[in-house]
Specification:
Elements (H helix, E strand, L loop, with lengths): L1 H24 L3 H42 L5 H8 L6 H15 L6 H26 L3 H33 L4 H63 L1
Helix pairs in contact: 2-6, 2-7, 3-4, 4-5, 4-7, 5-7, 6-7
Length: 240
Amino acid sequence: MEPDVITGAGLGDATAGSSILGLVVDADPIIKIVMLLLLLASLWCWAVIIDKTVRLGRLRRKANLFERVFWSGASLEELYRRLAKRPDHPMALIFTNAMAEWKEAPKNLDPEGQRNLIERVTRVMELTLQREMAALERSLPSLATIGSTAPFVGLFGTVWGIMNSFQSIAMTKNTTLAVVAPGIAEALFATAMGLLAAIPAVVAYNKLSEMLDSYAERLGSFSDEFSVVLGRELDTLRVA
């Protein structure tokens, strides 16, 4: 009896080790399609999550370096010459676009002309900020879409698997576990894959949205501060 018990346990472990792969291979074609869609959705989610996280981290480091140089008292003209050819992050691009508008516009000492100039420069920075944030937010809504739809796609697979189980019972007129287990297992696996795609998508969407909002506020604050700096430059020209 003891050798039989040991042999049975070994076979059970081997079967358990290959059960998931066997479940996928032997699944109903419809459930295979559901599993494939959910797998692709999960891979896409992680690709977006990794891309956005790495990119935002890199942009924050570049913004830290730029702000240190900007507020160090260095000449704006010199900083513009260094960055004009290749601004490689949104804050530098906001600065270079604003400086380009500033340099091309006549420095009218009339108060009305000065206000118009500051408004144009501010508008240029706002448009640049909106364009850059739109580029950063690209693909982010797909996380929300996957997070809201993946559980229902998995639920569809679940319903289909249970239907297969009932059909097996009807065809064999047998209610033993061996008859209904494959369909139920497929159903539960489809549900699990739906959750596997949805949960990271929802969590990442909320976190990345918060990070992007914070970065946008930082760019907006820089734009406001730079407008103040340019206003002081105009005041200096007026006094001179």
